[in-house]
Design a protein that fits this description.
The protein is of the alpha+beta class. It is built from eleven helices and nine strands. Helix 8 runs antiparallel to helix 9 and helix 9 packs across helix 10.
C-alpha cells in the first residue's frame, strides 16, 4: 500500500513544533508532499505577492522541482534563498522539509527595483517588505542546512516506524477479517458453514414466526469419487454442486454447507410453489452441468420441509427436511436401478 507523508505523520503536532521553530529563528519552515503540495509553511511572508503577479515564483519553483535525493535550492532575483531536503522513507520520496525566505547578505538595491517593476510592486513598499526578511551569515547557513538534513532524516525514521506500524495493523485487520469470515463460511465452497446454519436456526426460534422452508441437499456419489479419483476431484465436485445450489437459490435465502456432502437452503416467507421452483432450477442446472461435464457428472438429492405455522423448533423442521432428502435419495436409487451411496 502506498502512503503519503500526511498518512504517517502527526501534521498538526508537526505544524505546532515548526511554528515554534519559526518564532525562534524567524525563518519560514514547512513540509511539502512529494507531489509539490505544501502541507503547511510556518512563517511564510507574502513579500512578492499582491502586485500584478499575485504569486511567488520561488514557491512554485520549489514545489515543481523537488529533488528526491538531495537539496532543492532556489535563489530569487533579490537573493532570497529557499531550500528543501527530501524525506525518504524506505527508498520512497514521500515529502521534503522546506526552509526559506532569508538572505545571506542584504538584497541589492538595483535587484529590488528590477523585481518590483517585474511584479508591478511599488519599489519602496517592496523594499520595506524585504527588510523584514532575516539576513543570516554564511556560517549559520551551513549549520542550518545540516539541521535541515538531520530533521529530514529524523522525520524519515519516524515515518518508517509509523509505516511499519500501519502495515502490521493492516495485516492484523485482514487476519481478523479472514478469521471472522472463516468462522461462518466453508473455506472450500465459500458458502455459509454448519455453525452459522445452527445459529440461524436458533435465532429463528426466538423470532416472530413467518412461513419458513428448509431444503436439505446431498451430493450423490461423493465417497465413490473420493475413493476412486481422489479428494482433489471430490472437491471439484463439491464446488460444482455448491455453485449449482447457490445459483438456483433465491437471493434472499441462506445457502450453507452443513456436512461433508450435505447442503441446506434456509428461506423465510416461503411457500410450496416457491420451493418447487427452486427444486426445478437445481435439476435444470444439474442437467446443464452434466451435459458439459459428462466425465464427472453431479447428482443431487433434495428434501424440503415447509412450516406454515410455528413448528416445535427449527431443528424439528430441519430433521423433517433431512428425512425427506433421504427419501428422495432412496427413490432415485430405485429409479436408477443402481447403488448411489
Amino acid at each position: 500500500m502506498k502512503y503519503r507523508f500526511a498518512d504517517l505523520a502527526d501534521i498538526p503536532k508537526l505544524q505546532e513544533l515548526m511554528g515554534s521553530l519559526f518564532w525562534l529563528t524567524d525563518i519560514a519552515i514547512g513540509i511539502i508532499e512529494a507531489d509539490g503540495t505544501f502541507l503547511f509553511c510556518a512563517g511564510w511572508r507574502g513579500a512578492c505577492v499582491n502586485g500584478s503577479q499575485n504569486s511567488c515564483d520561488c514557491h512554485a519553483f520549489i514545489s515543481a522541482n523537488l529533488d528526491p535525493v538531495s537539496y532543492t535550492c532556489r535563489r530569487c532575483p533579490t537573493g532570497m534563498l529557499h531550500y528543501a531536503c527530501p524525506i525518504v522513507v524506505d527508498g520512497d520520496h514521500l515529502a521534503s522539509v522546506y526552509i526559506g525566505q532569508f538572505f545571506t547578505e542584504p538584497p541589492d538595491e538595483l535587484a529590488i527595483r528590477l523585481e518590483a517593476a517585474q511584479r508591478g510592486l511599488d519599489p519602496d513598499e517592496y523594499r520595506r517588505r524585504l527588510a523584514k526578511i532575516p539576513v543570516i551569515p554564511p556560517m549559520r547557513l551551513t549549520l542550518l542546512l545540516k539541521y535541515l538534513k538531520d530533521l529530514a532524516n529524523m522525520l524519515a525514521d519516524i515515518g518508517l516506524q509509523r509505516r511499519h506500524q500501519m502495515e502490521t495493523l493492516e495485516i492484523l485487520r485482514l487476519s481478523q477479517e479472514r478469521l471472522q469470515y472463516l468462522s461462518c463460511h466453508d473455506p472450500l465452497t465459500g458458502l455459509r458453514n454448519r455453525s452459522h446454519f445452527e445459529e440461524q436456526l436458533a435465532a429463528m426460534d426466538k423470532m416472530q414466526f413467518v412461513p419458513t422452508a428448509v431444503m436439505v441437499l446431498d451430493l450423490d456419489g461423493l465417497k465413490q469419487v473420493n475413493d476412486s479419483l481422489g479428494h482433489q476431484t471430490g472437491d471439484l465436485l463439491l464446488k460444482a454442486a455448491a455453485n449449482i445450489i447457490q445459483e438456483a437459490a433465491p437471493a434472499e435465502s441462506t445457502v450453507s454447507r452443513i456436512g461433508g456432502d450435505e447442503f441446506a437452503i434456509l428461506l423465510t416467507d416461503a411457500d410450496p410453489a416457491l420451493m418447487e421452483t427452486v427444486r426445478q432450477r437445481i435439476e435444470a442446472r444439474v442437467l446443464h452441468y452434466n451435459a458439459e461435464h459428462p466425465a464427472l457428472p453431479v447428482g443431487i438429492s433434495a428434501g424440503t420441509a415447509i412450516a406454515t405455522s410455528k413448528p416445535l423448533s427449527m431443528r424439528e423442521l430441519f430433521k423433517q427436511a433431512d428425512a425427506n432428502m433421504y427419501q428422495h435419495k432412496k427413490s432415485r436409487k430405485l429409479t436408477a436401478g443402481k447403488d448411489t451411496p
